[in-house]
């Protein structure tokens, strides 16, 4: 019988990211338990993303169903603009997002305008704007009435994740009855304090919580740990914080006459002004003046599009003890199967057809010494989203966070769609040589053509560091699906 099944998919949505995971567990005396999670849902290619969401709805997430977990890595439009489509007529139990104060989120709004000229007039754009300016109220609409909550993750102490004290032969109870899969944050989850509320400019905080990236949320069935979610949020420096504050202050001064109380402008007033902006000229002037006023050497050659330190990284990894538990209840009669599938979309006369090809298939029986010989890396994935991992100091901080699990993932996401502003040989040279890497990017440049990913220089760096043989492209026409199955024979 199939005891355990995981299926993950990097959907072919083009410029953006839509990553989904499905976990099914069937244990003795226990009904099948399911857990669905998603990491980002957005794209500049609206047609592709809408098609992928429609397919996901039909297979995994029907109307009136509940998603277990949605992770928002950061608030750039191409990573979040389809969330409202994903959750339409549906609910979610838990949403995880980076903790960003209002001024930092506001900078992302102005950065968006600087890139595009305006936010546009489509529902997708208005949803993204509301999400940036007022994430709690915007997301609360989709929370499950009984269990729903939003968890904001902030930067914690600059320390690595320690190798846990997981015992290989823990005495877990074999009798699980009606136990459900739940994400356990432990004791490090707390309510928002008054200082947090002021920083977030938040209202409706009843279902909002906070923690730091030192926490390690663990998916469990009963007391048995299945997999854990290890987050990393880069710390922002004082210079960056002062820059965000200066930009906000200059914006308020620029539009002072439009506020009832300029000392305390409302989110509604700010939203209305943003919607009227049709050119980036004034926004660019604000950025330039803020840089001149502060005169930080750190920003001397920094472009506005590079000012985004908000992205969460995530390593999801399976727990060793779960394999041993399954081995115990099946008297070691287990088989393991993993399959990596390339998704290819082929354009026909009237529609696209999908072709799925297995590119890496492996099947094995349990050995005496090791319940699963690939448990150290497969199917664990390190997602970096749009993190800035260019400077050596940033690469070192990122590496140190995950160094104790640096050989415990088989797939690594090249940051920010392969931009040379986010990574180079400093990061790539640290990735284990056997690790598969992927770049998610857009082929169809329908949104202006200014932003070109991936960068030729970054591709050269990938080649120079020996990772070109293990590079997988993900775009509008190609996606990636990978699966892990454990079967057993229960007496």
Provide a descriptive summary of the structure in words.
InterPro entries: RibonucZ/Hydroxyglut_hydro. The protein is an alpha/beta fold. Helix content is 28%, strand content 28%. It has 14 helices and 19 strands. The strands form two sheets. Strands 8-9-6-5-4-3-2-1-19-13-14 form an eleven-stranded mixed β-sheet. Strand 16 (411-413), helix 13 and strand 17 (436-440) form a beta-alpha-beta unit. Helix 4 (102-116) packs across helix 8 (238-254) and helix 8 (238-254) packs across helix 10.
Helix content: 25-40%
Q: What's the tally of helices? A: 14
Structural class: alpha/beta
Largest sheet: 11 strands, mixed
The fraction of residues assigned to DSSP E strands is 25-35%
Low-confidence stretches: none
Assembly state here? single chain
Mean pLDDT: 87
Strand order of the largest sheet: 8-9-6-5-4-3-2-1-19-13-14
Estimate the global geometry from the Cα principal axes: globular
Number of strands: 19
CA radius of gyration: 23 Å
Spatial gap, N to C terminus: 11 Å
């Amino acid at each position: 019988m199939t005891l355990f099944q995981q299926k993950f998919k990097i959907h072919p949505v083009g410029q953006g990211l839509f990553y989904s995971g499905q976990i099914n567990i069937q244990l003795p005396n226990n009904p099948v338990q399911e857990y669905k999670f998603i990491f980002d849902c957005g794209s500049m290619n609206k047609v592709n993303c809408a098609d992928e969401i429609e397919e996901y709805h039909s297979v995994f997430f029907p109307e009136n169903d509940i998603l277990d977990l949605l992770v928002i890595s950061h608030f750039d439009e191409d990573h979040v603009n389809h969330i409202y489509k994903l959750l339409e007529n549906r609910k979610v139990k838990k949403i995880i997002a980076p903790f960003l104060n209002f001024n930092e989120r506001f900078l992302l709004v102005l950065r968006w305008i600087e890139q595009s000229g305006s936010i546009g007039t489509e529902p997708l754009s208005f949803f993204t704007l509301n999400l940036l300016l007022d994430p709690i109220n915007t997301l609360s609409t989709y929370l499950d009435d009984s269990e729903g909550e939003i968890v904001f993750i902030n930067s914690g102490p600059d320390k690595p994740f320690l190798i846990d004290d997981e015992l290989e032969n823990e005495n877990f109870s074999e009798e699980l009855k009606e136990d459900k899969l739940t994400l356990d944050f432990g004791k490090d989850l707390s309510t928002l304090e008054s200082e947090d509320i002021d920083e977030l400019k938040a209202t409706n905080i009843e279902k909002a919580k906070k923690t730091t990236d030192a926490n390690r949320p663990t998916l469990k069935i009963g007391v048995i740990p299945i997999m854990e979610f290890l987050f990393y949020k880069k710390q922002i420096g004082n210079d960056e914080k002062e820059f965000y504050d200066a930009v906000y202050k200059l914006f308020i001064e620029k539009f002072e006459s439009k506020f009832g109380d300029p000392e305390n402008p409302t989110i509604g007033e700010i939203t209305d002004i943003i919607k009227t902006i049709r050119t980036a000229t004034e926004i660019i002037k604000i950025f330039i003046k803020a840089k001149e006023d502060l005169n930080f050497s750190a920003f001397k050659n920094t472009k506005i599009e590079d000012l985004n330190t908000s992205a969460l990284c995530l390593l999801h990894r399976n727990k060793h003890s779960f394999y041993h538990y399954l081995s115990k209840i099946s008297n070691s009669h287990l088989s393991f199967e993993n399959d990596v599938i390339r998704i290819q979309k082929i354009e026909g006369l009237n529609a696209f057809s999908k072709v799925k090809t297995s590119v890496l298939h492996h099947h094995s029986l349990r050995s005496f010494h090791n319940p699963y010989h690939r448990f150290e890396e497969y199917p664990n994935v390190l997602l970096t989203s749009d993190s800035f991992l260019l400077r050596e100091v940033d690469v070192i901080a990122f590496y140190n966070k995950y160094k104790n699990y640096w050989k415990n993932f088989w797939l690594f996401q090249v940051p920010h769609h392969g931009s040379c502003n986010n990574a180079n040989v400093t990061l790539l040279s640290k990735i284990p040589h056997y690790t598969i890497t992927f770049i998610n990017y857009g082929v169809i440049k329908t949104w202006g053509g200014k932003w070109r990913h991936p960068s030729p220089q970054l591709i050269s760096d990938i080649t120079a560091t020996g990772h070109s043989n293990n590079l997988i492209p993900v775009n509008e026409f190609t996606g990636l699906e990978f699966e892990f199955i454990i079967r057993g024979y229960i007496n």
